[in-house]
Design brief:
By secondary structure, the chain is α+β, with helices and mostly antiparallel strands. Helix content is 39%, strand content 27%. It contains 5 helices and 6 strands, in the order H-E-H-H-E-E-E-E-H-E-H. The protein has helices at residues 6-16, 24-30, 37-49, 95-108, 124-128, and strands at residues 22-23, 53-60, 64-71, 76-82, 88-90, 115-121. It is globular.
């Protein structure tokens, strides 16, 4: 792996400082330097290929399929994604996934090292409005 250029480091810093997954558009809007969207996409591809970040895709009726990126150093991630306002709510409680992880490890004889658990639906604020 080549060393990180300043622009790659900037994108990685933005992702690592977030407590929730970010889309390429989120990252582009949070940048502090002159960085175009094409560079953001190339950088995300580079960071993911070099195992520095992870990603997943979610679908919503209004936005279609969007890819979200998060820091690789997070051993597990839990959140709720509102399909209407597209906001993430991170969960700090791991009790649900801990029990599920133990059951999966016992059943399949695997050792799980990390996981991402997410729920989708409509958040409280969007239910009221």
């Amino acid at each position: 792996m080549k060393s990180l250029t300043p622009k790659r480091q900037l994108v990685l810093d933005i992702i690592e400082s977030s407590d929730q997954p970010l889309s390429s558009q989120d990252i582009f809007s949070l940048k502090e330097e002159d960085l175009n969207l094409a560079t953001v996409y190339r950088t995300l591809n580079y960071l993911e290929k070099n195992n520095l970040i992870e990603a997943f895709s979610l679908f919503s009726e209004s936005r279609g399929t969007v890819r979200f990126y998060f820091r690789k150093s997070n051993p597990h991630l839990h959140f709720f994604f509102c399909q209407r306002c597209h906001q993430f709510t991170p969960f700090r409680d791991c009790s649900f996934s801990q029990k599920a992880q133990e059951e999966i490890e016992a059943k399949y004889q695997h050792k799980i090292q990390s996981h991402v658990l997410y729920f989708t639906g409509i958040c409280r604020a969007c239910q009221v409005s």
